[in-house]
TrEMBL record:
<dbReference type="InterPro" id="IPR050287">
    <property type="entry name" value="MTA/SAH_deaminase"/>
</dbReference>
<dbReference type="InterPro" id="IPR032466">
    <property type="entry name" value="Metal_Hydrolase"/>
</dbReference>
<keyword id="KW-0378">Hydrolase</keyword>
<protein>
    <submittedName>
        <fullName>Putative hydrolase</fullName>
    </submittedName>
</protein>
<dbReference type="Pfam" id="PF01979">
    <property type="entry name" value="Amidohydro_1"/>
</dbReference>
<keyword id="KW-0862">Zinc</keyword>
<feature type="domain" description="Amidohydrolase-related">
    <location>
        <begin position="79"/>
        <end position="443"/>
    </location>
</feature>
<dbReference type="GO" id="GO:0019239">
    <property type="term" value="F:deaminase activity"/>
</dbReference>
<dbReference type="InterPro" id="IPR011059">
    <property type="entry name" value="Metal-dep_hydrolase_composite"/>
</dbReference>
<dbReference type="GO" id="GO:0016814">
    <property type="term" value="F:hydrolase activity, acting on carbon-nitrogen (but not peptide) bonds, in cyclic amidines"/>
</dbReference>
<dbReference type="InterPro" id="IPR006680">
    <property type="entry name" value="Amidohydro-rel"/>
</dbReference>
<keyword id="KW-0479">Metal-binding</keyword>
<dbReference type="GO" id="GO:0046872">
    <property type="term" value="F:metal ion binding"/>
</dbReference>
Amino acid sequence: MTQLFDSPSANVPSPNLQSPAPAAESRLWIRNPLAAFTANGLDASGGLVVSGGKIVEVLGAGQAPSAPCGQTFDAGSHVVLPGLINTHHHFYQTLTRAWGPVANAPLFPWLQNLYPVWARLTPRDLELAATVALAELLLSGCTTAADHHYLFPAGMEDAIDVEIGAVRRLGMRATLTRGSMTLGEDDGGLPPQSTVQTPEAVLADSERLIREYHQRGDGAVIQIALAPCSPFSVTKEIMAESAALADRHDVRLHTHLAETLDEEQFCVETFGLRTVDYLDSVGWLTDRTWLGHGIHFSDAEIARLGAAGTAVAHCPTSNMRLASGTARVLELEEAGVPVGLGVDGSASNDASNMILEARQALYLQRLRYGAHVPVERALGWATRGSAAVLGRPDLGQLAPGMQADLALFRLDELRFSGSHDPLAALLLCAADRADRVMVGGEWRVVDGQIPGLDVAGLVAEHSAAARRLVNG
Ligand SMILES: [Zn+2]
């Protein structure tokens, strides 16, 4: 196996460790940024002080740190954001990007053509695919990623373990969701029989993953959630049993819902229920749940989701590529639904780029609601909103006590030349790459690169794996 990193594992910060009061040398002042978006109205013109993996001070204009800082980073050329948080992805799909046979297809035929290809996935394929997806996300300013992995053909039983290895090597945070498919073609579902598992296998592995990996509380690096794939690929029984298991272990629930009108029609024909009634009928209409897409809801359904506190991962690029529809994001938020952003899997948004996804969200929602939708609102979805979607009150804002997860962008490329407002320029001029990214107080991107990652070697091996996969 080719070694993609200089060292076998990155120096990953441990969560939940109480440390004594840090000395000056451990305090870092990220000083006087060109601009900062805090996601909470705080003024960070003077910068931030980071210590012990957390933000300990947010400084207004002209303010200096309250105690000496042994290290200073001059951010005068940088726009500082909370680390971006991706709430919906399928890492393995980086192997089937821009695949000709489905380049111009809507969801159901797109899936039916891809399932047999995906059924050939191997653990090494997934390791390469997850590393590619995570590296892309990290370079775009993302510090926490959620992945929805629901493919467990024979030989792929350790898929989530493989993903966790990739997350740890890159030094990011992640919510890995143990997905499942239990309703195959033989029983009226969409996926081929070789890709579905028994409910017993799904539940046993879900429980194992929670026990082995799920971390709780501030600073958690790895979290596990339970994620039956979609109404047309799982039984109602596995939905209900997953909800009960999540309740017992206090972990979150995730699934695709209300992505297309085909799906709505499937629910009405198969269950005699619209999507939100279906969700309610299996015990998922709670604040433990976040939904991928959440497009086709009536006014009454939006009100029910808001009252329950059920969250939505808005995936604008995927929704445009597959022509699935436009999520009613402002109305969802106004009803009380937490909304974050997801790039979605790389077979339906072929780029895993979070800062560009914030731009797509801004523009798609402007098409729906008008040009007054502010840039800051889109940045809020990608940060504080996404943190709420994943149930992470310690992430997504620049404030004292929050984790020191940061994305810093420079505006000195050609594409920004002539721009005026730095925050607006990030989205309107299409920033696509962070210059520096910090996770838990550790720099994971420096000068636009991931230290120690052999990108050329990764691309070569991943591309070969992708060709092998589609050629059978
Ligand atoms: Zn998806």
